Structure formats: structure tokens, C-alpha cells
Amino acid sequence: MDNMENPWLKLSVLLFMWLSLNCQLCFGADTDTISANQSLSGNQTIVSSGGNFVLGFFSPGNSNYYIGIWYGKISQQTPVWVANRETPVRDIQSSELKISDGNLVLINGSQVEIWSTNIRTSNSSSVVAVLEDTGNLVLRDGPNSSAPLWQSLDHPTHTWLPGGKLSLNKRTNQSQLLTSWKNSEDPAPGLFSLELDPAGTNSYIIRWNRTRQYWSSGPWDEQSRIFSGVPEMRLNYIYNFSFHSDENESYFTYSLYNPQTISRFIMDYSGQIKQLSWLESSQQWNLFWSQPRQQCQVYAFCGAFGSCNEGGLPFCSCLKGFHQKSQTNWNLSDFSDGCERTTRLQCEEDPSLVTGKTDKFLESPNVKLPESARSMSVGSMSECESSCLEYCNCTAYAYDSDGCRIWMTELLDLQQYSQSGSNGRTIYIRLAASEFPSSSNNNGIIIGAVAGSVGLVLCLVIFVIFRWRRQRMINPKVEGSLLAFGYRDLQSATKNFSEKLGGGGFGSVFKGTLPDSSIIAVKQLESINQGEKQFRSEVSTIGTVQHVNLVRLRGFCSEGMKKLLVYDYMPNGSLDVHLFHEENSKALVWKTRYQIALGTARGLTYLHEKCRDCIIHCDIKPENILLDAELCPKVADFGLAKIIGRDFSRVLTTMRGTRGYLAPEWISGVAVTAKADVYSYGMMLFEIVSGRRNSEQNEEGRVSFFPTSVARVIAEDGDVLSLLDPRLNGDAPVDELSRICKVACWCVQDDETHRPSMGQVVQILEGVLDVNVPPIPRSLQVLADNSEHIIFFTESSSSQSSQTPSYASNASSQAKSNTSSTSS
């Protein structure tokens, strides 16, 4: 029998042909392309040519599905663009993304078009959609066409990818928006958006509900190539920034110097813009930069009748007498719905007030008052209260030196300040009378008699407790070499944390006095999530660290979320006060500055090399160098630094530290070493020399970056005295000044292997080693260059770049070599 006459064989061939055709229609010849008569459905995806991005259906955590683009080379699915933000689909098997009439369209299970690119084209049959390796989805008139008919980068959602732009069309006065998700599980447009100011100020602004502006980048400064309100842009060398403006449009864009870096800029549902980098080693996103810096600076973040508090998590809470409108949304950190009354106002229940009752007011002190108040001309607080009671929609009033103000709307943007805050006002919140305890009590006489009879006993008990607590505070529990204090003891010693000495990334520091009259500094830690055992273990380890150039940790407190550290008090404060605040102190003479630099280096050497475990400080800056009565430097704030064993050379940790002092490896995401401290120390040396911040803006609005000036002067063998703090009138030995400038330039080399150890720094500053001329770090040159084409300074080609460079030689040997050359 002929093979083709076999019916089973014919059926197999037909089935094979149908499957081949079906696969071709679904996926196409190119895995990054959707052509006419092709579609995506179910779990099908297309992948960009280099595998960087994927397009397909995804679900952010609920039962809804969206067409989106996400990263293809990282383990955590992270969408960067969403097509149908407001119209999700439920059944992805019957929904399709396809080319139809020259457009890319999304059809749901009911065959209804719910999203489209909405363009017009004359030749619809040749249109293709291509996912590029930049994350841009492009619609083209044929696979070989270069001009896009439509592209996703022109329609951003909440992520601004490198190469994309947020523009202002000057002809239509329309801005492109970067709009937040509603919450972590809902990509629908949220309340917060970033755009180029339609007023033409060349500033980016963040708005709440497209109306209320609460942050601005400041105008673009073409000379300095930064936005004036974001000076830290000058400290960046990962991104290449560009601003364009002509008669048609203005826009800002950026690119990555290293294409292998995975970075994204988002308008977060927290109301903050954030720059994040992917850490492959820890498989997570690391926050590099955000604005506004404080969560409570985001307008109305906690919604109506919600109060924001920076003191701890969660940031939002409802006012007394109110509860969350949506507990589900609050669990997703979406507080936009705000709060609603637990009990309706009396005037709403009984407009005629026939019951004789009335609403009352709850005093809320030390808060930031909301906007949109109405001023009333009254002469007393009682009259102000009565003015509010006249209107059933009056929600609150305030009476102070600014007079009487009442609020006739929902209360938005309330912020509760800490007890030590000085900017707070008092507001009186209107509540139903039933929210207050009844003032009438038939047993009042009996209660008064009982109170009088037990008063003497109560006083006696209080006296005994006070004596016991006083004795316990004088002799607190000893744990290892540290003292374990009670929270109330430290609260009493600091007079309820009333005298603030300063603050930083880990918390605020308060002055206190123990019963034995010794003065202490108490650090109230914030955002510390360690468990009790881990916290005590780390603090106990730090407690064994003793060095003349390290501030002494005397004890600690750990009661639940309340974690505090107790240090010796330093009467001369921190170094930054003496360097940057001329009105507070006399300029430090050069000899003192040099000894501070040397003492700090010795303290860090002890942490890095002399302790049982290597301790990386992670936040070296003038604010963390304290000065005792003799101006001897003490490295402070290393209580919760990173401890690594001697068997390890690196440690992986989340980014910590201060902008302007961060080493490049923090940003690139690799595990850090003690060389991260060396970089921060070098940045601080520049400030010790100049007596000013490394990045400053002058009266003309131009921003200067001092480390770049030092690097150039050193490389060109220029006048180092020109770098000295002008208040010293050139009174400094040239050799010491030159030595400290060279050390600083070595410390801030981009490659950590090219930086000296802190032990070598000590030897150089002591004169044991002589320091060679350093190469100009590439990052400093990038920051200084204001032209379109950046000139990179690299090390010489004589194999020096592949080896550890020579920082120094024996002081007896005067052979010095310049390890750098320049090329463009």
C-alpha cells in the first residue's frame, strides 16, 4: 500500500502542519517580535534580543493580570512598564495581545478591545512590534523600518528607564508623567506623579493628585550640569545626564556609563522618587537615592484624618476617634484612603441639638498644621471654639499667636512631631461627645473620700519606688564590660530627651546626667530591626573595643523596639561644627587639623586591623568625629557598624552611610571591605583641608566640587596653599598640606584595590612613608567635566592598571613616580 494512502499517516501529517502553523502564528520567526496575524496569550512571552527584557502577561500579587515589560536577567520579577494599568484581565488564556489594523491591541476574554496604541498608519499589514534590549517596545512599519510609529518610552508608567525621557511639549504645554502605582499589588495610577514643570522653569516637580506640588528639583544648571536642588548629582559617576531644550520641547534623559549595571528610576507609591540598583550578590534591589528624603514630607501621605510620624513604623496612624477606611489597603502601605470617624458628630445625628449634648474637641499638641484653614477674627480660644461649633462641617480649630483658624474640610497632611520637636503647633480635633468619658459621676463624693484616704499611702509608695529606681540607676546591671540601663532611667537622665546634641542616619543623640553627676550622650536608635539576642551580641562585641581615638561605649538599653546606646560625653562636639559653622567656633589651626586627621586614621586602623574581628564603620564623616576637651578626635557612631571575622575579606550588607562619602562599591552592589571606610575618610580629608563642604553652591548658583580641584593641583604640581581654608591665611607647612592632599586623592580611587589601608595612611601621615603622586580618579573627572564629551583620565598603559599601585615608599627614598597619564 502507498504510504500516502494510509489514513493514519495523512492525519499525522495534517496535525504536524497545523501545529507548525499554530506555533508560527503564536511566536513568529523572531522571539522579540510580534508580527501581523500573531498574538500573545496565556504564559507566552517575547524576549528582547539580548535577553534583558521580557513582554507578556503578569500578575502583581492579586487575581488580575496585565500586559507588562519586566527584567529578564534578574530573579525578582520587576515590571518597568504596564499597558492596561486601569483595565486588568482575569483570563489570560482567552485574552490576546496582537497586531490589528496597524495597532498593537489587547483583547480580553469577551473579545473587547481594552487597550491600544491608537495610531494611524497607511500600511497596516506590515506593522510589527519589537521589544528592544533597552526595555523599549517599538511599533514599526515593517521589520526593517528605523522610524518608530509608536514606542513605550514615550508613554512611561511608573519607571523611567535609561534612554527614556520625561518631556514638556512647549507647543501644547503638555508634560509626560511618571505616575506611581496605587500600591504594591495594583499598577493603576496612584496619587503621585513626576513631571517637568509646565510653567517652564526647567525643574522637575512631584505633585499629589496632579494639583499640590510638594517637591522640586530646582532648575537645570547647564554650567554645572545638575539640577540646583539636587547637588548630590555632582557626586554621581554611574549615570551620564543630559538636558535638552528648544522651541518645541524640553526634556531630561540619562544613560549608564556601564551598560552592565541594572538600574531603574521610579515614582514609588510612597510618594518618593527613587533610584535603585540591582545587587546580583544579594538578589535584591538596593536603594541608592530618594526624594523627598523624609517620608512625612510627602504631601497627604497618610490620607484624610491620618497622622504621619517619622518616629517609627508604620509612618501612618489614624487620629483618635477615627479608624482606617480600608484595612486591606493599609496592609499594602496604601494610606491614600485615609481614615473616617468612628462615631458621627452630634450635629450630624441631631441638627437641632434637642438632646442638649454637643460635640467636643480633642487637643493634639506638637503637630504640623494642615493647610486650607479659614482665619476668624475672635479674641479668645473659647470664641474660636464656638466659631467652629457654628458649622457642622468644621473639623478642627487652632488658636495661638497667629490667631484663630478653623478647618472646614477633611484634615490632610497632618504630621506628628517628636517630643523634642520645636516646630509643632496645637490643633483641636472635633469629635462626638460620646468619644469622651462622661464628666458626671454620681459617686464623686465617695471617690473623693477614697482618694483622700489613700493619698498618703500612695505618696509613700512613690517615694520608695523613686529611691529604688535611683539606686538601680546608680548601679545598673552589668553585662560583660557594658552597663545595661533601663529605658525609664535614661529617659529621666536626659530629661525626657529634651537636650538634643545632634542626629544622623541611625537616630538622634541627647545629653544626659547620671545620678553620680557624670555626663553622658544617649543615642536613641531608629530603624534598627535586630532581634534582642543579635542586638546584645553586636553591642557586647563593640563594648570590648577600647582605643584613645574611639569614643567609649558605656552601656546600652534594649527593651522591645526601644534601643539606645550610652557614650561618654564629648564637650567640644563634632568636627563638622568646627569646620563648617564659623559662627559657632574659631577656625581650627592647621596643627590641630593634622592631628585630628592622624588620630582618626589611628582609630580606624584599630577597628580594621587590631580588633579580634574587623569592624567596618560604614559612615565616616565630620559629624561622626567627636572632639574631647583637648580636641583629641574620637571616632563615634561605630556601635552598629558591620563586623566581619578575620576569615572573611568582604561582607555583603545593605547600603549604609551618607551621600557624598559613599564609596563606589556601595552603589555597584559588590560586597564591601574596609576600603569603603578609606574612601569616606579621604572625602573627609578634603573637608579638613578646605574648611567647607566638598560640594557647594556659590552666590551665582554655580556648584563647585573641591576634590576635583585638589586632584588637578596635585597632578599638575600646583600651589597647594591655594587649597587651604582661607581663614588660616596660608599658615600651614607646605609638605604636610601636600602630603594630606595626596593621601586624600589615593583614598578616593575608584578601584578599591588602588586605595591604601588605614595602617598605610597612618604611616604616611606620621612621616614613616613618603607618598607618591596619585592618578586622578575617573569619577572626579566625570564630576568636573561640563562638556558634552567627557574626558576620562586613566592610569598609564605600563601594566600599572592591572597591579596594585604604589601609594608610598620609605621616607628615606625620595624616588617618586607619577602613576597616571591622561587621555581623552
Q: Summarize this, please?
A:
The chain is of the alpha+beta class and 824 residues long.
Please provide a written account of the structure:
The chain is of the alpha+beta class and 824 residues long. The chain has six domains: 1-26; 31-155, Orthogonal Prism (Agglutinin, subunit A), CATH 2.90.10.30; 164-293, no CATH class; 343-435, Hepatocyte Growth Factor, CATH 3.50.4; 472-569, Phosphorylase Kinase, domain 1 (2-Layer Sandwich); 570-822, Transferase(Phosphotransferase), domain 1. The strands form 15 sheets. It has an eight-stranded mixed beta sheet, covered by helices on one side. The longest helix has 31 residues, at 444-474. The N and C termini lie far apart (78 Å). It comes from Hibiscus sabdariffa (roselle). Residues 31-152 form the Bulb-type lectin domain. InterPro entries: Bulb-type_lectin_dom (IPR001480), Bulb-type_lectin_dom_sf (IPR036426), Kinase-like_dom_sf (IPR011009), Pan_app (IPR003609), Prot_kinase_dom (IPR000719), Protein_kinase_ATP_BS (IPR017441), S_locus_glycoprot_dom (IPR000858), Ser/Thr_kinase_AS (IPR008271). Residues 795-824 are annotated as: Disordered.
Q: What is the element layout, followed by pairings?
A:
Layout: H1 7-27, E1 33-34, E2 39-40, E3 45-47, E4 53-58, E5 66-71, E6 79-82, E7 96-100, E8 103-107, E9 113-116, E10 127-131, E11 137-141, E12 148-151, E13 159-160, E14 165-169, E15 174-175, E16 178-183, E17 186-196, E18 204-208, E19 212-216, E20 220-221, E21 226-227, E22 239-245, E23 249-256, E24 263-267, E25 273-279, E26 284-291, E27 306-308, E28 316-318, E29 322-324, H2 327-331, E30 339-341, H3 346-349, E31 360-368, E32 374-376, H4 381-389, E33 396-400, E34 403-407, E35 414-416, E36 425-431, H5 444-474, E37 477-479, E38 482-484, H6 487-493, E39 500-504, E40 507-513, E41 519-525, H7 532-543, E42 553-559, E43 562-568, H8 575-580, H9 590-610, E44 614-616, E45 625-627, E46 633-635, E47 642-644, H10 664-668, H11 675-690, E48 695-697, E49 703-705, H12 706-715, H13 734-747, H14 758-766, E50 769-771, H15 778-784, E51 793-795, E52 808-810, E53 820-822
Parallel strand pairs: 27-35, 38-42
Antiparallel strand pairs: 1-10, 2-7, 3-4, 4-5, 5-6, 7-8, 8-9, 10-11, 11-12, 13-24, 14-15, 14-23, 16-17, 17-18, 18-19, 20-21, 22-23, 24-25, 25-26, 27-28, 29-30, 31-35, 31-36, 32-34, 33-34, 33-36, 37-38, 39-40, 40-41, 41-43, 42-43, 44-47, 45-46, 48-49, 50-52, 51-53
Helix pairs in contact: 9-11, 9-14, 11-13, 12-13
